[in-house]
Structures are given as structure tokens and as C-alpha cells.
Amino acid sequence: MYNKALDFRFMLFEYYKELRINETELVIILFIEHLQQKDTEFITPDLINLQSNIDIKVIDEAMVRLVSKGLIEFTTRQGKMITSLNPLRSKLQELFVLDYEKNKENSTIEFSNQVEEVYNLIQNAFGRQLSPVELETINGWFNYGYNITMIKEALDQTMKRKRYNIRAIDKALLKLSTAVDYALEGKSAQSDLYRKNIHDTLEEVNKKAQDDDN
Predict the structure, then answer these.
(1) Are the C-beta atoms of 66 and 107 separated by less than 8 Å?
(2) Which of 11, 42, 132, 167 fits 92 for a cystine, CB–CB 3.0-4.6 Å?
């Protein structure tokens, strides 16, 4: 989703309701962006009217509302008047980052709950407290991308063999990760959830905003 979210139109359709943009204003914004892509810098209701079937009065009123909402602006660049969507792009970016951080927080909570669940399962199976080294090994499983279903099955296999040690579970996980039963359409059984680099994604978002300002 995040690659798509960096796309202006995707973000616009994703968040326009939150920004209280109605469908008429949405169409006007799309026409402004379309004209900008054709290297038209100063966009007036007349220009949009030539490109559409929308009444010029409706266009004019919609653009006034968009300016009053702080979503578009008319400014000067090198002595020339231009129409800018940068205020809107900034707001869309802010909403995206908020959603991203929320998803990140939810993923972190879910991750912590899963790790704690595995701790308890293995401690109960072994009948003892786990050592710091064993706890570190378990954390490594999640960081490597093993999901909780695989870990539970690996634990179950080792318990059936009466092997009460982390190394046995680790070996079982390695076998499971290459098993056909855990392959889906040719993909690895390892989860991609925790391989994403959050900082890189946010830097890409910031770079997108900076590029739009230039």
C-alpha cells in the first residue's frame, strides 16, 4: 500500500472525505493536476471550463472554496502567477504519515503480544523459565520473518520428539521455512511484515513532498 500511497491521486481518493472535499471540488483538483502535467502553471476557471463540461460559475465557486480551505493557493514564482497544489499535497502527506504511524503502532502491539505468547508457550512446554540467550533466539525468529503459526508447529514437532531445547525448535523452523506446505504461489513462508524499513518509507514520503515543492 505504501508505494501507492506516495501517488498523489491515490492519496487524494483515499483522504478527500477527511479533508471535507466534495466530489465537484475533487474533479476540479484533478483538472488542476492534469493541466499542471501539461506545463500550465497558472490555472483559471476558464481553462478548466475549456477542458470540461462543468459550468464556469461552478468551477469558480469550487476554486474559491478550495483556496479558503487552504488546499490550493495562487502565488508567484519568478514574477509569474502560478496555481499550486502544494498545500493539499502537504495535508495528504500528513494524513498518510498519521495512518502509517497508527499502523506501525498496531503492528508493534501485535508483535509484542505474539512474542509474549511464544515465550509463555515455550516456558510452559519446557516447564522452566527461559534464559536470556533463549529469549534472544526467539526474538530473532520474529525478526527473521517466521510467523507465529510456524513457531507453534515447530514447537509441537519438537515436543512430540521430547526435545526440550530452543535449538531443536530452531532446526524445526528451518525445515518448515523450506517446506512446500508453507509455500504460497512460489513465495517464501517467511513473513515480510517485519522486513519493512519504516525510516526508509518515511524518507520517501518526505522526498516526495520536497520534490513537489520544487
Answers:
(1) no
(2) 11
